[in-house]
Design goal:
This protein is α/β, with parallel strands linked by helices. It has eleven helices and 14 strands. It has two domains: 6-224, 3-Layer(aba) Sandwich (Rossmann fold), CATH 3.40.50; 230-293, Alpha-Beta Plaits (2-Layer Sandwich). Bound molecules: adenosine-5'-triphosphate (ATP).
Length: 311
């Protein structure tokens, strides 16, 4: 059977007495973009640094294409590309010089470097600036160079730590489009604290909080993970609030217009059906009823709360 591109088993790390990440397990089999979402201090950079072989874990293992990263770091790292939060750019070099230097660091054979640099500049659309000194480039172009250094050795697994941080809206769109493009051929793990980033880019999400994975699944699953607990209803007969509160399962009522109400319910899955029947029986002239789905932001906050409550 094919080995997963990356497999992490029982991974834990502590800097001192406090665990920064604890007992993390996951594996990716497919190409695509996987989002690692978490607030500041959740443990993203620690996890990324370990996965890329920059930091040695306290416990557990990382396998890249079946190769144990701790036991065979040089072989394993040939399969990994890494763009840390602070791109490791040499600001005084030109793009071409810098990428040649990176190819050397990656131990690429001398006779392959020239073509690899040309190819990666083409891919990242920076060929026209090949001779330009990096410090004179815009933030968006510097980030393209950062991405170029991460794929120059053609790794099949790429880790991008907050890749659009500090960019303006146009630059964000351009860098996202480049990430999507490179992910067609590779597996990309992208860390971010920005919900819109995972919405725009990722196929699957891992959410990390206080060093532990508290959710993994598709974007839709993430969005639906927290069941809705409110619905709105338009009732042209404008019944009094007290009558609505009398409906079994309804916990609170908010009046949000002359005829519009927001009703909070317990975990009764048939509440809408029951509510519609009552409206018809009482002739409240129901015009509209709609479940309110939690936004990604709400889900994020709820998941963090759930984790705290379960501890
Ligand atoms: N070198 C270090 N020494 C001691 N503690 C550290 C060190 N680096 C990180 N930590 C702690 O480990 C925990 C996880 O930090 P980490 O940087 O991995 O989180 P993060 O999700 O990447 O946050 P950010 O987005 O702010 O970088 C935090 O409590 C942090 O204070």
């Amino acid at each position: 059977m094919k080995e997963p591109i990356i497999k992490v088993t029982n991974l834990s790390h502590r800097y001192n007495a406090q665990w920064a990440i604890k007992d993390i397990n996951f594996e990716f089999q497919e190409k695509g973009i996987y989002g690692l979402l978490g607030a500041n201090g959740a443990g993203k950079s620690t996890l990324m640094n370990i996965i890329c072989g920059v930091l040695n874990q306290s416990e557990g293992d990382v396998f890249i294409n079946g190769i144990n990263l701790r036991e065979q770091p040089v072989v394993a790292k040939k399969h990994i590309g890494f763009l840390p939060q602070q791109p490791p750019l040499q600001l005084e070099l030109t793009i071409k010089e810098y990428l040649q230097y990176c190819a050397g660091l990656r131990l690429m054979p001398e006779n392959t470097i020239k073509a690899a640099v040309e190819e990666v500049m083409e891919k990242c659309q920076i060929s026209h600036f090949a001779g330009r000194i990096i410090k004179n480039l815009s933030g968006g172009y510097q980030q393209r160079v950062g991405i170029a250094q991460s794929i120059i050795h053609k790794p099949d697994f790429i880790v991008l730590d907050e890749p659009t941080n500090g960019l303006d809206p146009n630059q964000i769109l351009e860098v996202r489009s480049l990430i999507k493009d490179i992910a067609t051929e590779r597996t990309v793990l992208l860390s971010t604290h920005i919900l819109q980033e995972v919405q725009a880019l990722c196929d699957d999400i891992w959410m990390i909080n206080e060093g532990q994975i508290i959710f993994s699944g598709s974007l839709d699953e993430f969005d639906n993970y927290i069941m809705p607990s409110t619905f709105t209803a338009t009732l042209l007969a404008s019944p009094p609030e007290a009558e609505l509160l009398n409906i079994p399962g309804i916990q609170a009522v908010e009046i949000i217009g002359h005829t519009k109400y927001r009703l909070q319910f317990d975990n009764d899955k048939e509440i809408i059906e029951k509510f519609i029947k009552i409206c018809v029986d009482k002739d409240w002239r129901l015009m509209e009823v709609a479940l309110e789905k939690g936004s990604l932001n709400t889900v994020f906050a709820e998941l963090s709360k759930k984790k705290v409550q379960s501890n």
